[in-house]
Amino acid sequence: xxxxxxxxxxxxxxxxxxxxxxxxxxxxxxxxxxxxxxxxxxxxxxxxxxxxxxxxxxxxxxxxxxxxxxxxxxxxxxxxxxxxxxxxxxxxxxxxxxxxxxxxxxxxxxxxxxxxxxxxxxxxxxxxxxxxxxxxxxxxxxxxxxxxxxxxxxxxxxxxxxxxxxxxxxxxxxxxxxxxxxxxxxxxxxxxxxxxxxxxxxxxxxxxxxxxxxxxxxxxxxxxxxxxxxxxxxxxxxxxxxxxxxxxxxxxxxxxxxxxxxxxxxxxxxxxxxxxxxxxxxxxxxxxxxxxxxxxxxxxxx
Length: 302
What we know:
The protein is built from eleven helices and 15 strands. By secondary structure, the chain is α/β, with parallel strands linked by helices. The protein folds into two domains: 4-214, P-loop containing nucleotide triphosphate hydrolases (Rossmann fold), CATH 3.40.50.300; 227-285, no CATH class. Strand 10 and strand 11 (210-215) form a beta hairpin. Helix 4 (111-120) crosses helix 5. The two termini are 31 Å apart.
C-alpha cells in the first residue's frame, strides 16, 4: 500500500454540544485521487478546513506528509498544498491574467509556473476576459489554476463540480485524472457518488460527521451489498426458483436478488441453469449515494 500523504487520528470538531466531525480516521495514499463523499452537512468542508488548519480541531491530530499540521508547521506544509474551498477565488473586475499575476506576486512564483498552471486547466485562450464574464466552469478552472500554480504535492478541492453542466463535470474529471497521473495527490469532495466514481481510486464516505466507509470502489460495492439483477428467459420461473433468496420481479421484467456475495451469485446462476432458465446477464444494481448510505447504516446514517 502506498504511504499516506494525509492521515488523521480521532479528528473531532464540536461547536458547543453539537459534533460536526467525530473521531475521524482518514488515510489518503500518496498518488491517489481520494473521493470524499457525503450529503450536504455531513462534515466534509469542516474536515477539509481542519486539514488546512483553517479550523482548529476540538481534539485529534492531522498529519500531512508525515508532519503534524499545527500553527508552527502550517506555513511550510501549505507551500506543498493547493486548495479550492467553497466559492472559486478571484476578483470579478479583473481579467484572468490579472488574477494570476496577483497569485504570482503573492507566492513569489515565476512566469513559467503560472503559464503551466493555466495550460493545465486549458484556460489559456480565456485569460484576457474579465472573470465576471466567465462561466461557472471557467471560474472553477481558474480557481484550480491558482491552486496548482505552486506545483503542490497535494490538491484539496471542495465540491469543484458544483453547478457545472455534464460537459463541465467531465472536464474536471479529466483534469483530476491528468493531475494524478502527473504525481499530484488529489482529495476531492462531493455529495454525488456518480460525479467522481470514475475518477477516484479511493473513497471515504462521511455521514453525520463519522466515517462509515473508507476503501476502493469494489470494497464499497461489497460492503453495501447491492441487489444482483438477473436478466433471463423466464423471470417468473426464476423468481420461484430463487424464492428462498427473497428474489423479486422488477418493473423491467428482471429478477432482483438482495444480499448476495460473488460466490452466492454464482450458485444462484447455477440453480437457474439447472432449472433450464436461460441467463442472459447478471449485474449489480447501480446505487446512488443515498442507497449506499441506507445499506451501510441500515437506514440510520442520514
